[in-house]
Please model this.
Amino acid sequence: MKTILVTGGTGYIGSHTVTALIQSGYNVVVLDNLYNSSEAVLDRIETITGTKPKFYKTDILDKEGLKTVFAENEIDAVIHFAGYKAVGESVQIPLTYYENNISGSVNLYEAMKDAGVKTLVFSSSATVYGAPKSVPIREDFPTSTTNPYGSTKLMNEMILADVCKSDPDWSVLLLRYFNPIGAHQSGLLGEVPNGIPNNLVPYIARVANGTLEYLRVWGNDYPTPDGTGVRDYIHVVDLAEGHIAAVAYALEHKGADYINLGTGNGYSVLEVLHAYEKACGKELPYQILERRPGDIAECYADTEKAARLLNWRAKYNIDEMCRDSWNFTLKNPDGIK
Ligand code: WQD
Model:
């Protein structure tokens, strides 16, 4: 049985991936500093899978803590989610983002190297494409970033590409997620944002459960069918399955490669809002406001490479994503404690 270390494993995407890994027959070790998640997530993973993964409350800035994890476990591969991820916050406190997402990640890669663990799946983001010249976006499109969060993702990609050039024994898959939304069908796992959500669907969920008054639609003058921003929303369970395919591929190959994880479909803000109205059975109020600085008009994935290399495609549609998001929101009004 292969053992996978999942950093950030109690987080939103991490917890869904840990669940899928256990259900796929892997032994899983979870490392998390619980800055943006709760240890109670591990009990929920146990409820779903029957297995509570071994857990280390460790910060990737803690070099000794990382060394202990690799000394106490025979790790075959690492999936690295741990990192700060709020775009707006990264503009306010860039040094905190660079320290955590870059120095912390380099600590992890050094600990892997010292332990002879050279297989890694990295949580990257479609944000590395900046404002794409066209859509759908292919992995060979130019990269550029407009905020420190996105820059930390791109810098990690460059660091890992250089590590692979320095040592051909490394195997690294750089997964570029589009817009993860939704929740586990059990209603036990889902997204629990700190404070007022920046992202669209967690904000809509709060309008639907009455804790926020209306959705602020950031601009309806984009060159899109209804004028609002278009994004490639992907169900977090599909994303987790993409990681199962990715880690299996990484264990069988060497070198670095980049793969989009998206559905290939773009939905506008208003289309998502209406899908959520169907899911919750209520009309959801909104106001059209000015564009949000830094936003782009359209972003959705070319999914050919993921299908070809990983034999993986997203399965869930926007209605199922909103259904599962609303189910989690209803069942967890106070998040996961
Ligand atoms: C989606 C659309 C907004 C909120 C970000 C990160 C990216 C990734 C996913 C980590 C846009 C509109 C939003 C609201 C709105 N995260 N919107 N009202 O900006 O595409 O991507 O999250 O990897 O890195 O950049 O996602 O959900 O913030 O916005 O109108 O209250 O919804 O303008 O068109 P985004 P988002």
Remarks:
- The chain has a mean pLDDT of 97.
- The first strand starts at residue 3 and ends at 7.
- The radius of gyration is 19 Å.
